[in-house]
Specification:
Elements (H helix, E strand, L loop, with lengths): L14 E7 L12 H11 L8 H10 L2 E6 L4 H4 L6 H10 L4 E3 L9 H12 L6 E3 L1 H4 L9 H10 L3 E4 L24 H8 L5 E4 L6 H10 L3 E4 L10 H8 L6 E2 L9 H9 L5 H15 L4
Parallel strand pairs: 1-2, 2-3, 4-5, 5-6, 6-7, 7-8
Helix pairs in contact: 5-7
């Protein structure tokens, strides 16, 4: 095992994709049960083939980009073991010029989640953590998860948390039992308020709670928004307006690969005509600062 240390040449890259999923590991374990992955393919119109960590490094190098890579640990809610965050970190350590690893822990495992979070940061060098409250089946504002947020705050790395509707379970009876209310961004307002040293990245335009997410990012210095999972041509007018102006330092490019490719996202973003200084912030500079690369 090699501990990850970033070697991102910022002037040499044009963007940092802050939201990239690794769908399988070397043991063949997949990030989600087959039924959910199949439903996601149908929801997103059968996106590109999922890539290994090594393949993702080549994919992003070809595009003169870096990428934040992660999985989601939902072992309790889904009853299946996750693919390996440690293996993702090991893969990123082989490609520190192109990849930035985030870990994932299952909040519902209690003290085990805190211990794993510490090991992933201290031993593997992950640069943050990914959570998906709807898939993991937890309310991030609940008292029982405060020790986890405090521990990650102490470790000094950000969290990226899914907000809004999701393609996971979409179109299945009962949505596979997954509850969208856990992904209301206002549940994270408590977390950001109680842990001011913790950087909270609200993943995705938070449909149907977009205005709440914008309010949080404007109100709290430690709250950011990643713009992944939706083509920019579907962004709300309020999101576009505030990304250009008062929240231009709070917005992060993300694709949600393989659900959406960075090529498609960037093509549609260019059509919005952002001024170049703001465009540079959204695509690269804000993420470099938040991830401690600048």
């Amino acid at each position: 095992m090699t501990r990850y240390a970033p070697r991102i040449d910022l002037p040499a890259i044009r963007a940092i994709d802050t939201h990239v999923h690794v769908q399988f590991d070397s043991t063949g374990r997949r990030a989600l049960p087959d039924a959910l992955l199949d439903a996601m393919d149908a929801y997103f119109g059968h996106g590109p083939q999922a890539l290994s960590v090594d393949e993702l490094a080549d994919y992003y190098r070809e595009r003169e980009m870096a990428a934040v890579v992660f999985t989601v640990d939902a072992r309790t809610a889904l009853g299946t073991p996750p693919n390996s965050s440690r293996e993702i970190a090991d893969g990123a350590a082989r490609h520190p010029d192109a990849l930035i690893p985030f870990g994932s822990v299952d909040p519902r495992t209690g003290a085990e989640a805190l211990s794993l979070a510490r090991r992933l940061v201290e031993e593997s060098g992950v640069r943050g953590f990914k959570f998906h409250p709807t898939v993991q089946g937890f309310d991030p504002s609940a008292e029982e998860f405060r020790p986890l947020w405090a521990e990650i705050e102490r470790l000094g790395v950000p969290i990226v948390v899914h907000t809004g509707q999701t393609g996971v379970g979409a179109g299945l009876p009962g949505g596979y039992g997954l509850k969208l209310r856990y992904s209301d961004p206002m549940l994270l307002d408590d977390v950001a308020a109680e842990h001011p040293g913790l950087t909270v990245i609200l993943a995705h335009p938070s449909v149907p709670w977009q205005d709440a997410a914008l309010s949080m990012a404007a109100h709290k210095a430690n709250v950011y928004i990643d713009l992944s999972g939706w083509s920019p041509k579907y962004f709300s007018p309020a999101l576009v307006r505030q990304a250009r102006t008062i929240l231009q330092d709070k917005m992060l490019f993300g694709s949600d690969y393989p659900a959406l490719t960075p090529d498609r996202w960037l093509r549609d973003f260019d059509a919005l005509g952002f001024p170049e200084p703001v465009r540079a912030k959204v695509l690269r500079d804000n993420a470099a600062r938040v991830l401690g690369l600048a």
